[in-house]
Amino acid sequence: MAEPTHRSFRGGRLTMKVSCEHEISWSIYVPVSVTSDMTVVRVNRSLPRGTILSKHDLQALLVKRSPAHLPLIDHIEEAIGSALKRPLTAGTELQHSMLEAPVVVKRGDQTVIAAGNAQLSVRMTGKALQDGAIGEQIRVQNLASKRTIQGEVQADGSILVMNW
């Protein structure tokens, strides 16, 4: 009979108790490494902090390895369009903690402020008062009225004001 000595294991290693219950009973403890085939995504080349990842920066590889402590990215599509939080060297396996939403609007950028509803749509020029990624709420100044308002950053770099 073989059974693990603990129900949890760290880094793919555990100890198994192998025993036999017959006329002469015996048992031994055997160290075991658990590995499996898994897909990992690596960067092709060294990249600086803030790089927005494209398909050309990444490669997916099937590797044999023990379970990782930190969740690794296993599909290239999960990383495309994300920005690097820190510089990475060629061959680094990507983890979710290494990525962030890219900044679309930077503080001081001139942008379009859009507001409206089904009957009326208004667009005006504004100035971003803080950096913002897609979906984030940031403060922006209407350049005509000098009024500061808050809106959501859109993929095209415009700011959508919901309550006006």
Number of strands: 14
Helix fraction, binned, reads: under 10%
Secondary-structure element series:
EEEEEHEEEEEEEEE
Q: Describe the strand arrangement of the main beta sheet, using strand numbers.
A: 9-10-12-13-14
Structural class: mainly beta
Tell me the major beta sheet: 5 strands, mixed, barrel
- Total number of helices: 1
Weakly predicted, low-confidence segments? none
Q: Please state the average pLDDT score.
A: 88
How far is the N terminus from the C terminus? 71 Å
Give the overall silhouette.
Answer: elongated
> In percent terms, what proportion of residues is strand?
over 45%
What Rg do the Cα atoms give?
26 Å
Task: Provide a descriptive summary of the structure in words.
The protein is mostly beta strands. 2% of the residues lie in helices and 45% in strands. The protein is built from one helix and 14 strands. The chain has one helix at residues 76-79; strands at 2-4, 13-20, 26-33, 36-43, 58-65, 83-84, 99-100, 103-105, 110-116, 121-128, 132-133, 137-142, 148-153, 159-161. Strands 9-10-12-13-14 form a five-stranded mixed β-barrel. Strands 1-2-3 form a three-stranded antiparallel beta sheet, with no helix packed on it. The longest helix is centred in the middle third of the chain and has 4 residues, at 76-79. It is elongated. The model has no long low-confidence stretch (mean pLDDT 88).
